[in-house]
Design a protein that fits this description.
This protein is of the alpha+beta class. It contains 12 helices and 11 strands. A hairpin with a 6-residue loop joins β9 and β10.
Length: 429
Amino acid sequence: MLKNLPLLKDPWATTGFFLRLMTKAEYLEAFKKTSQNWCFSFAPGRIEFLGNHLDYNGGTVLGMAVNAGIYCLGVPHSENHHLGISQDQNQFSLFSESFEDSEFVGNLDKIEKQSGKYGWTNYCLGVLQQLQNRELSPKEGFRLIFTSNLPTSVGLSSSAALELATCLTLLQLAEKNLEKKELVTLCREAENHFVGLPCGILDQGTSAFGKQDQLVYIECKKEEFSNLALPSDTRVWIFNTGIKHDLVDSLYSTRHEECMEVLQRGQKVYPAKEYLTDFTLEELNSLTLPENLKKRGIHVIEEQTRVSLFREGLIKKLNPEKLGKLLADSHVSSSMHFENSCPELDFLSEMLNRHPNVLGARLTGGGFGGAVMAWTQSKFLQDDAESIVQAYAGKFNQTIDWHQFEPSDGAGKENLLDAPPTRLSEMHR
């Protein structure tokens, strides 16, 4: 069978070829027929398991790297002649069949923010700029080619996966290395300063530090990462509302500003407090705040308590049913206090939390659309998922997707050697 594999002469054809490869052995054999100067990286999507909007508030969060993500092929400038491609020494290109199926051509000497169909490239360009600032970027042009098996508009942070896959590939092209923690910091700064989203480190940290069958526990204040095993007889599901949300243009930034205002007002009374999560409810209630700001503070402080209790419960191996209630409570707080839910998310969360085989369900990610995560017993099956989908269709006259994911290893240059699934149906209906 290996003899029949096509010779990978043109990397533009490689994205489709990725998806046809079925085994590590096949992939390695094909890789030998290409240039050794090509390089590959993979970064998984992530699920925000618990800790809604806590990362930029100095809290602790729980994330889960999923068994799907973004794959990146890097071709150095030196290979263009071999491929019969004319390219200026400082010219680079970015191509994706997943993001508008578009090719962007730029120059290393002039990194500028893009819009329209090239808006997706800002996550790559921001990373490139950060690498240049640290003198870690390739000195000559290159070509990056991306493909993805992440479902879209589900809140799995494809942006962070794109940043990490880009960074790992560019580092290989430049023959440089970064520690995982430095990698996370660089990608977060790219999103903060170039893309313009004031995110914390949850997304990049989870994608980088994921481990099979484990959650990622992040102490955002210290930027420290560790892992916690999930009970083996539990499962994680995602139910997608189909409501798209662009975090840069949504109320995400507004919520960030509100939290910062609560902090600033609180620091006038309690100057030693560094983050909003440093406050107690009693201290918060002692402040004179508008109703909306008070509610934001209540959510952040109580959500921090829920994360701490969940972590402690996993360490002590408490009954998952007791821990699941913390997830349900998190959604109620996100809806009532942080106000980043919507009727569709509320309905899904309520339906799932009423199901006897669901341990707990909550919105995941920035909110204002996107998806609900359900942590279930292993006896929650596809038929159960379909019943939830049918109930949703009856309520909103819309059919939605569901996906089951497994906690998986984080980003790395070696992960691509295990070819991505040929169909999303391998992970969902």
